[in-house]
Specification:
With 232 residues, the protein is α+β, with helices and mostly antiparallel strands. It has four helices and 14 strands. It folds into two domains: 62 residues, no CATH class; 150 residues, Glucose Permease (Domain IIA), CATH 2.70.70.
């Protein structure tokens, strides 16, 4: 009951439910630090404690923000559009082999998320989860291309009217906790929140080769809004 109230409160404040546990911990630490700042007679220590507590609160509120987004396909009947699953910058855009779910050559689009980006991930299309695999791995820098196959990650395969797409939440050097309460058989709606990565990193998405790519390298994209590609 209390947990549900906290989730509702976070939603009202524009924060993600996936960050409630961390926000509670930060709130406790901040109160403790502010209390120590009031208690101490040392001016320099008072300033340090207050600054650290303020930074933790501001950083956490910024990191766990969860603004509403409207997919470009909403109300237009364009269920062939692939919407970005993450905020960030496109760092990889190439053809590659995808042996896990598509079992074919595919387009790979990788989106790198900085600590300042919104980190809630959203479904790129409407479909049924047909494949899910959580893979334990390394925690090398997410900006390195090899992290796609080496790092810890959650992979979700979506069946979209008989067409297959695959997307993956990839942990990084600092971001080591993936939240993905998804299971095989679930139906995801385009733009629906399906998880997040605490604190950072990247999301990869594999699309069929006949997809028409509508973004370019280095482009900044927004989860739940930016159109990445269109399927035939």
């Amino acid at each position: 009951m209390a947990h549900n109230l906290l989730i509702s409160g976070a939603t009202v404040l524009g924060l993600t439910k996936f960050g409630v546990d961390v926000l509670i911990a930060v709130a406790v630490i901040a109160v403790l630090f502010f209390g120590l700042a009031i208690w101490t007679d040392e001016t320099w220590l008072r300033v340090v404690l207050a600054v650290v507590a303020t930074f933790l609160v501001v950083f956490s509120l910024n990191f766990f923000r969860d603004p509403d987004r409207t997919p470009a396909s909403a109300g237009r009947g364009l269920d062939s559009l692939v919407i970005s699953p993450a905020d960030g910058r496109i760092v990889i855009l190439k053809e590659t082999d995808e042996p896990n779910y598509l079992h074919s050559r595919a387009w790979l689009i990788s989106i790198f998320m900085s600590p300042l980006d919104v980190h809630v991930n959203r479904a790129p299309m409407t479909g049924v989860v047909e494949y899910f695999k959580y893979i334990k791995g390394e925690f090398i820098k997410a900006s390195e291309e090899s992290s796609t196959h080496r790092n810890e990650r959650a992979m979700i395969g979506l069946n979209v009217h008989g067409r297959r797409i695959l997307f993956s939440q990839v942990a990084g050097y600092i971001a080591r906790r993936i939240v993905c309460p998804v299971k095989v058989g679930d139906t995801l709606r385009v733009g629906e929140r399906f998880g997040m990565i605490k604190f950072g990193s990247r999301v990869d998405i594999w699309l069929p080769l006949d997809a028409r790519i509508l973004v370019k390298m280095g482009q900044t994209v927004r989860a739940g809004e930016t159109v990445l590609a269109e399927l035939p």
